[in-house]
Specification:
Shape: elongated
Number of strands: 7
Strand content: 35-45%
CATH topology: STM4215-like
Order of helices and strands: HEEEHEEEE
Largest sheet: 7 strands, mixed
């Protein structure tokens, strides 16, 4: 069976970049929304599965669509700067390994982190949407 890249894998990779304390990186839900947190979520898309002609056995690359929420602090400028720092890292990351899975590159779906305002505690938030393109381990030559 093919090894799939999961949200937890991407969360752990983001943790390894040391943008925030590891306990403040989440998937699914930001518990109690601590300041300086990053959440990784499944990005809802209307795209069809990207399967090669001939089926899954001929597919060499898979996609994982994610939405990354940067829930930072009460300072809009600091939140924007941190979000841009993370965005730039995603933009320049290619040919790296996450949990024994080779990620070829990350396609950013928006030109910059999107300001989504503040939460009910006036913490500024920004969102980055991306697709991780990774190799089908069973298709390695």
């Amino acid at each position: 069976m093919n090894k799939l890249l999961g949200l937890a894998d991407i969360r752990d990779w983001i943790k390894s970049l040391n943008y925030t304390a590891s306990e403040n990186c989440y998937i699914g839900k930001l518990d109690n929304k601590k300041d300086k947190s990053i959440g990784v979520y499944q990005l809802k898309t209307s795209n069809e599965a990207n399967i090669a002609i001939g089926g899954i056995d001929n597919t060499k690359t898979f996609e994982k669509s994610v939405s990354i929420l940067i829930h930072w602090n009460k300072n809009a400028k600091e939140t924007e700067q941190k979000s841009q720092e993370i965005y730039n890292k995603l933009l320049t990351s290619k040919d790296f390994i996450i949990n024994d899975i080779k990620v070829n590159y990350i396609r950013l779906l928006i030109p910059e982190p999107v300001d989504v305002g503040t939460d009910d505690k006036n913490i500024y938030e920004r969102v980055i949407q991306a697709i991780f393109y990774y190799e089908n381990k069973e298709k390695e030559d």
